[in-house]
Write a structure and sequence with these properties.
globular, 2 domains, 15 helices, eight-stranded mixed β-sheet, about 425 residues, UDP-N-acetylmuramoyl-L-alanine:D-glutamate ligase, Protein-Tyrosine Phosphatase, Chain A, alpha/beta
């Protein structure tokens, strides 16, 4: 099997849809020899911030000298981003090899009437790869929810982190914050430690606290208000927390909240020191999540798509008083496009609405019409690359091109 064949095979499984439950992943891992056994885990759930949190923790564990696997989703520029060891993407050759073995197990299960989903297959591939590469830790980011997410098949993790919880995937997880928080808190297991923050939604925090008590899981609520900003630029934030000074290169005050949770989680991992935490946080980089790219004009790339992501992006655009902003925006129709644009559009002088190469993409004209009451020049261009070129040509040299609304859009433009 070659790399593209592996990726095409995984994507072909999307036809089977999303099917919460652990029975299929349990059967698949059993067929693969239960590679999850013998690994040590950090498990991260939440609506927003779980990708940043997972990545920061992986950098800290690497700084502490641990060989560390990282499993995240979605990817932005390469499918290989989803499986990393020591912050290096799995090679295309290794991905193809491990997926070929998982596919063989899947075909055997299919003969028994068991049909694993796309996410279950990539979860199994990650666990098999981490085990064979002799990782000492694996940081696992939940795909959807928590309780019935395929990552929840792992043994009791040393630390569970639950980041910000808000409404998302309501058709699957429930239409209230309490219901969604209960799903996220489903990763808590007896003998583990749970970390969340004081800025958690109060309803969600109550559910997390009750679940932790019921599961006999020690709970730490990181005091985000104790973090004090020392200096900040769009490319760097320096803050203090309980007497220690940390530097992160992820813009936005929301990343300080994420980092505080990471600090508390890392302190509960054997062998991790304050020096390791400082080094890991300072080295953390993330592509496609408020990623600043210097140039003429410079660009800011952000794939976040829900209203809370829009709020965080709006805060960054406002805080740093960024100059003339020309935006390229493409979104999925099943997202809350109205509330997202309500937060982002007022910061822009011009917006080029476009359509990512995905059947779920929202029509550019529909997005344009939704900002008719905003003082912004709005255009449509079905071709993302054409839209970006038009935006770059229209932006003044001291301006900024903002590309946002969907990771699919970023992938189309920068892969």
């Amino acid at each position: 099997m070659h790399y593209q064949e592996a990726v095409d095979y995984i994507h072909s499984l999307l036809a089977f849809g999303i099917k919460p439950g652990l029975q299929r992943i349990r059967a698949l891992l059993t067929a693969l020899g239960n590679p999850q056994n013998g690994l040590r885990f950090i498990h991260v759930a939440g609506t927003n911030g779980k990708g940043s949190t997972s990545t920061m923790l992986s950098y800290i564990l690497k700084a502490a000298g641990y060989k560390t696997g990282l499993f995240t989703s979605p990817y932005v520029f390469s499918f290989c981003e989803r499986i990393q060891i020591n912050n290096e993407n799995v090679s295309e050759t290794d991905l193809a090899n491990v997926v070929a073995r998982v596919k063989s197990a899947v075909e055997s299960l299919n003969a028994e009437g068991i049909v694993p989903t796309e996410f279950e297959v990539i979860t199994a591939a990650a666990l098999l790869y981490f085990k064979e590469q002799q990782c000492e830790y694996a940081v696992m980011e939940v795909g959807l929810g928590g309780r019935y997410d395929s990552t929840n098949i792992i043994p009791t993790p040393e630390v569970c982190v639950i980041t910000s919880v808000s409404l998302d995937h309501t058709q699957i997880l429930g239409d209230t914050v309490a219901q969604i928080a209960l799903e996220k808190a489903g990763i808590l297991k007896r003998g583990s430690v749970c970390v969340t923050t004081t800025r958690q939604d109060l309803t969600a925090l109550s559910v997390i606290r009750e679940t932790a008590e019921r599961q006999g899981c020690a709970l730490t609520v990181a005091d985000a208000d104790a973090a004090q900003v020392i200096s900040e630029r769009i490319t760097e934030t320096v803050f203090s927390y309980h007497g220690e000074t940390y530097t992160i290169h992820l813009p936005g005050r929301h990343q300080i909240e994420n980092a505080v949770g990471v600090v508390e989680a890392a302190k509960r991992i054997a062998g991790v020191t304050d020096a390791h935490i400082r080094e890991g946080l300072q080295n953390t980089v993330m592509r496609g999540r408020m990623e600043y790219r210097a140039g003429t004009p410079p660009m800011l790339l952000d794939g976040g798509h829900n209203p809370e992501c829009a709020e965080a992006l709006s805060e960054v655009l406002k805080r740093f008083a960024l100059p003339h902003i020309t935006a390229v925006i493409g979104m999925m129709a099943d997202k809350d496009t109205g509330r997202y644009l309500e937060k982002v559009a007022p910061h822009c002088k011009e917006i080029y609405f476009t359509k990512p190469d995905n059947p779920r993409s929202a029509a550019p004209a529909m997005l344009r019409d939704s900002v008719s009451n905003v003082n912004v020049k709005a255009f449509t261009d079905e071709n993302p690359k054409s839209a970006l070129e038009r935006a770059k040509n229209a932006a003044p040299k001291d301006g900024l091109v903002l590309v946002c609304g969907s990771f699919y859009l970023l992938s189309d433009l920068f892969s």
